Amino acid sequence: MNRIVIIHAGLRVPSSTKLLADGFVSAMPEDDVRVVALRDHAHAIVDAMLTGLVPDALADVIGTVTGADALVAVTPTFSASFSGLFKSFFDILEPEVLKGMPVLLAATGGTARHSLMIDHSMRPMFAYLGAQAVRTGVFAATEDFGGPGAAALRRRIDEAVGELRSCLTGVERRRPVDGFEQVIPFEELLKRER
Q1: Which terminus, N or C, of the chain has the lesser number of Cβ atoms within 10 Å?
Q2: DSSP-assigned beta bridge partners for residue 6
Q3: How far is Cα 131 from Cα 97, in angstroms, rounded to an integer?
């Protein structure tokens, strides 16, 4: 069974970002899915940004995210990019903790005109973090949550989840390796030159 964490940065209640996250939950009934709402940890995230100290509850969330087999990252669109809360959470993570982790990128916005933010904002950030972003990102505009748009959104969610699962099939995620653990002694390097 795959351990998948769905992390979302929906700020309001109700939130279209949470609705999209819930859509992913329903698309993965046979997986061990955990949902993390960053709104619940907003103050701790800001405090960690300012002080560098991570309280226990936030450390548990970070452990849940970094210990997952795969991640679904969902953010609202603000000013043609991800939300500040979403970015701040990923800023407090230690370097390379997401290296090699399959990640499905998803976002919400008031209009489909913002849909490119997945490729122009989210994809570069996760590439920098060393994560393996799946090809299909899921963007949901307001009209996607009702009427004919809902069926198309469901198809996009199912396609992206299928791609995420294909990243997990029989492959264990490679955890970051400390490059200093495999140091060749200088004397050995000198012997090779002769």
Answers
A1: C
A2: 35, 72
A3: 9
CB crowding 51-81: b at 16 or more within 10 Å, else e: eeebeeebeebbeebbebbbbbbbbbbbeeb
> What string of pLDDT tens digits covers the 194 residues of the chain?
789 999 999 888 888 999 999 999 999 988 899 999 999 999 999 999 999 899 999 999 999 999 999 999 999 998 888 999 999 999 999 988 999 999 999 999 988 888 889 999 999 999 999 999 999 999 999 888 888 889 999 999 999 999 999 988 755 545 555 555 566 777 776 776 65
Residue 136 near residue 155, CB atoms below 8 Å = no
Q: Which amino acid is at 162?
A: G
Signed CA dihedral, 98, 31, 57, 40: sign only: positive
- Residues facing residue 104 across a β-bridge: 72
Q: How far is CA 123 from the centre of its chain?
A: 10
Query: Looking up tokens 């069974």, which residue turns up?
Result: 1
> Which token pair is 77?
């669109």
SS3 20: helix
* 28: DSSP letter: -
How many other C-beta atoms lie within 10 A of the C-beta of residue 160?
Answer: 21
- Can you read off the two tokens belonging to residue 42? 């907003």
The tokens describing 7, both together, are 């992390």
> What element of type H or E holds 156?
helix 148-168
